[in-house]
Amino acid sequence: MDIAYQGEHLIPGHLGQFFIILAFGSALFSTISYYFATTNTNNFDNSWLWMGRLGYYVNAVSVLGVGACLFYIIYNHLFEYHYAWSHSSRTLPVYYIVSSFWDGQEGSFWLWAFWQAVLGNILIWKAKSWEKPVMTVICLAQTLLTSFLLGVEIFGTRVGSSPFILLRQALEAPIFSQPDYLSFIKDGQGLNPLLQNYWMIIHPPILFLGFASMVVPFSYAIAGLWQKRYKDWMKPALSYSLFAVMVLGTGVVMGSRWAYESLNFGGFWAWDPVENAAFIPWLTLVGAVHVMIVYKNTGHAYFTATFLTLISFVLVLYASFLTRSGVLGDTSVHSFTDAGLYGHLVVDVVVFLVLAVTVIAWRWKQLPISKKEEETYSREFWMFVGAIFLALSCLQLIVVTSIPVWNAIFKTHVAPPTNPVTLYNVFQAGFAAVITLLTGITQFLKYKKTDITRFFITSVIYLVFAALITGLVVYLTGVYKLQMVFVLVMFGSVYSILANVKVFADAIKGKVKLVGSAVAHIGFGLMMIGALISAGTKTVISQNANGDFGDDFAKVGNPKENIMLYKYEPVKMGDYTVTYYGDSVSAPNHYFKVDYKKIDASGKVIEEFTLKPNSQANPKMGLVSSPDTKHYLFHDLYTHVSMAPQEAFATDEGHDQENDDANYNPPIAHEMSVGDTIPYRDGYIILESLDRHPHIENIPLGANDAAVGAKLTIVSHGNIYGAEPVYLLQGKNVFDFARKVDDAGLKLRFTKIIPEKGKVEISVYMQPESKRPYIVMRAINFPYINLLWSGTIIMIIGFLLSIFRRNKELKTV
Amino acid sequence: MKKSSIFGIVVIAIAIAIIICTYGSASSYGTFTDAQKTSGELHIIGHLDKQKDLYYNAQKDANYFSFYMRDTLGKECKVVYIGTKPEDFEKSDKIVLTGKMDGGEFHASHILLKCPSKYTQDKVDVDTKKASI
C-alpha cells in the first residue's frame, strides 16, 4: 500500500537523481565517442570528436547540477533525505555545510567527479593532438566514478549509492508507516565534530583535486602507448604530474595539520591506513616525475617512468578501495563502513589495472627501452635508484597497510603488527635516509658523464660539512638518543639541503631553470628534519615519571602520561605551573580553561597564557575532545583533555537549597571575632570586619529589622577571594544568606551572633574531594615542528617553479 | 655482471626483506587462553562485560583503568590499561585489544573501540519514541 507522505520535498531529489543518471550516461557516451574519434582514420570527419566533447560538457553540467541539488537539500534542512539527516543539523553554520559534503561517501565521490570534470574540460581546451586518446581514458574514469553515485538497481543488485536516497528508503522503522512522519524528525544527526574545523573546509577539496589530477598522467601514458607516440607523451604528462604531486602533497600535509590541531592522538602522523592510502600514490608519482626527467634527458628508464605513472593512478583507486570498502575492519577507527560498494570498488581497481597491464603487454616489443647501461657516475643512474627506493618505500607501506586485504584474499587471519608505528618509522626512515642522500648526491653529478675527480672532491666536502652540522643538530635536539636510522635521516636531509642550497645559489646566478627542483628538495629536507625532531623528541610534559621520549621511537615502557588537575589547584608540570581555572561553554563545545605560568627562581612570572582544550558532547559520536596548542617559533605546547567527570558537562540549573547542601561536606561551625583566622583544607579564612549595612538583594529592610554582614577574606592556593554572608533578624524570624565561593569550593554562612562572647558563628561548607571538579589532561612539547610546516610551503613553491619551467619548455618545443 | 642486474638483485632482496619483516612482525588474533600461553603481544577481539565494574578513578590514579572483557570464545579476563578511560567506553560493542598477559591480568597497550554509534548511526531512536506516544 502506498502512503501519501506529507511535507516531503521530492523535487530536488528527483532532479538530483536525474542529473546523476545524466552524468553517468553522458560520460559513457563521451567515452564511446572519444574512442571512435581516436580510432577513426578519416581526418576530415570530426563528428565523433564533437559528440565526445558535447558528452563531456553535458557531464560537467550534470555534475554541477548534482552538487547544487545536494547543497539545496542540506542548506534547507530537508531531513527527508538520508544524506542531510545523517550529515547535517539545523545548528550547523553555513560554512560547515560544505564540510558535510565530505562527511559521507557519496559527497566525497561527487567532489572527486567534480574535479575530474574540471580537469577534463581543461584538457579539451589544452590537449590539442592528445585530446582524443587522453579524453577517452578520462571519460572512462569519469564513467566509473559517476557510477558510484547511481544508486540504481540493475538485475537485482544495487549499483552505487545515491546521495538523494530518502530517509524512509534508507532506514526501516515503524515511524515511516505514518504519513506525517516528517513532523517528528526535528533535526539531523549533525556533522562529525572532528570535521568542524576550518582545515576540514579546505583539506578535502585539495586532497581530492590531487587524487583527481592523477588520472591525467595516467591517461597520457595510456594514450602514448596506444597511439605509438612513445616518447611524446611524457612532456605534457610531466607538467600534470608535477601539478598532481604538488596538490596531493599539499592535501596530505593539510590533513596532518588538521590531525595535529583537532585530533587527540598527540601528533601529526600516525601511519593510519587512511593516511597511508593518500601517501602511497604520492610516493610513486614523485618517483615517476624523476624518471620522466631522466628519460627526457638521457633516453634511459623508459619502462620505469611508464610503469610508475600507470601504477600511481591504480594505487589511487586502490586507496579508495581500502578506505571505502570497509575491508580495514578491525584495524582502523577511521575506515568508512561498507556502503555496499565493495565489489564495485574492486571492479574499479581491476578495470584500470587490467587496462594498464594490457596496454604495456600489447606494445611491449616496441617500447623504446634502451639497451645501453647507464654510467655509474651519471645523474640518471642515481635518480633512477632514488625513484626505485621511493617505490620500495611505497611497497612497504602497501604490504603492511594491506594486511586485512591479504587476509581477505588468502582467507588467513593475521593481525597487524602490535606496534605498527615503530615498524613504519624504522622502515620509512631507512628509505628516507637513502632518498634524501640521493637528492643531495645527484646534484653533483651530470647527465651522461661526470668528471669523477671533481665529483668526489665536491661531494665529500659537502658530506663532511653535513656530518658536522648533523652532529651538532643531533646533539642539541637530543635526536642522538634515538635509533641510528633516524640519525641517518637527519644526515641525509642536512646533506640534501646543503647540496641544493648550492644549486639554488648557482641557479640564481644564471641557471634559473634549476631553481624549482632545488627549492623543492630544500623544502623536502626541512620537512624531514622537522618531522624527525618533533615526532622523535616530543616530550610528554604532563607525565609524572621520567622525561624520556614516547615509545614509538625509543623503547621505553608505558609511561603515565596523564595528569589530574583539580579546579583552582595549581600543579607543577615541567617548566610550567598549570591551573585548571574555569570553563566556558559555547554550545556544543565545552572549553576547559587551563592557565600556564612560567615562574623564574625569584618567583616572578615570566610568562603566562591560557589554553582552551575542548570537549564536545555529540549525539552521534559521544564525547569528542580537541586539543589546544600554544605555538612558538621553535616549539609547540600541545594540551589535550583526556578525561573530565560527567558532572563537568551538567548544567548548573535547578538545584535548590537542600540539594545544594548535599554538594558539600557537613558544615563546620566556627566561633570568631573580628581579626580571627580559621584554617581549612585549601587555605585559610579571615574575618575582616562586621558590616552594619550589608546589601541584600530584593529585600527592603524595615525599621525593626537588623542585618549584619561578615566581611570575610579567603586565601586559597595563593588566590584571594572576598565573601560577605549576611545574618538577618526580621521581627522574630532569623534568616541568613549564604555566600558561595565556587572558585575555592566553599559555601559560607553567618549562622549566629553570640553577643555574650562578642563573637559570631561562621559555618564553613567545603566541597568534598570527590565533588570537586577536575580534568585529566596530557601536554606534549613538540620541538621545531614549524620546520615541517615551513618545509612544506617551500616544497610547494619548488613544485610551482618546476611547473612553470616545464610549461615553458612545452611551448618552446 | 651488469650493474643493473646487481641493482635488480638488491631491489629484490629489499622487497623480500620487507615481506619477511611484515610477516615476522605481524601479530595474530587470539583469545585470552592463547595469551596465557605466549609471552609476546597479541590482538584479542571481544566485548565488554557490562555486568562487572569498570574501574577508573582519576583522583586515585589518572593513569589506571581496568575492566572485564569476554573474548570470542566467551572466556572472561580482567584487563588493565595504563591511561585514561577512553571516551564512551561503555557504549562500545566490540573491543580490539593489543597487549599481553601479566599474571592473571591482561595488560593492554592499545585499545581500539568499535562503537555502533560512531559510523553506523542509522537509528531513529528519539523520534520513534515520540511517535509512539
Question: Can you put this structure into words, describing what you see?
Answer:
The complex is a heterodimer of chains A (813) and B (133). With 813 residues, chain A is α+β, with helices and mostly antiparallel strands. Helix content of chain A is 49%, strand content 18%. Chain A has 21 helices and 24 strands. In chain A, strands 6, 7, 8, 9, 10 and 11 form a 6-stranded antiparallel sheet that branches. In chain A, helix 5 (105-126) runs antiparallel to helix 6 (131-147) and helix 9 packs antiparallel against helix 10 (234-262). The N and C termini of chain A lie far apart (70 Å). In chain A, 49% of the residues are buried. With 133 residues, chain B is α+β, with helices and mostly antiparallel strands. Chain B contains 4 helices and 7 strands, in the order H-E-H-E-E-E-E-E-E-H-H. Chain B has helices spanning 3-25, 32-37, 116-119, 125-132, and strands at 27-30, 42-48, 55-56, 65-71, 76-81, 94-102, 105-114. Chains A and B meet through helix 14, strand 3 and strand 11 of A and helix 1, strand 1, strand 2, strand 6 and strand 7 of B. Strand 3 of chain A pairs antiparallel with strand 1 (27-30) of chain B.
Topology summary:
The complex is a heterodimer of chains A (813) and B (133).
Chain A: H1 11-39, H2 47-75, H3 82-87, H4 94-101, H5 105-126, H6 131-147, E1 152-154, E2 157-159, H7 167-170, H8 199-213, H9 215-226, H10 234-262, H11 273-298, H12 302-324, H13 342-363, H14 379-401, H15 403-410, E3 414-415, H16 420-441, H17 452-477, H18 484-509, H19 515-536, E4 539-540, E5 563-566, E6 571-573, E7 576-586, E8 589-599, E9 605-611, E10 614-618, E11 622-626, E12 628-631, E13 635-643, H20 657-661, E14 668-672, E15 677-680, E16 683-691, E17 706-716, E18 719-723, E19 726-730, E20 733-737, E21 739-741, E22 746-754, E23 759-766, E24 774-783, H21 785-812
Antiparallel strand pairs in A: 1-2, 4-24, 5-24, 6-7, 7-8, 8-9, 8-10, 10-11, 12-13, 13-24, 14-23, 15-16, 16-17, 17-18, 17-19, 19-20, 21-22, 22-23
Chain B: H1 3-25, E1 27-30, H2 32-37, E2 42-48, E3 55-56, E4 65-71, E5 76-81, E6 94-102, E7 105-114, H3 116-119, H4 125-132
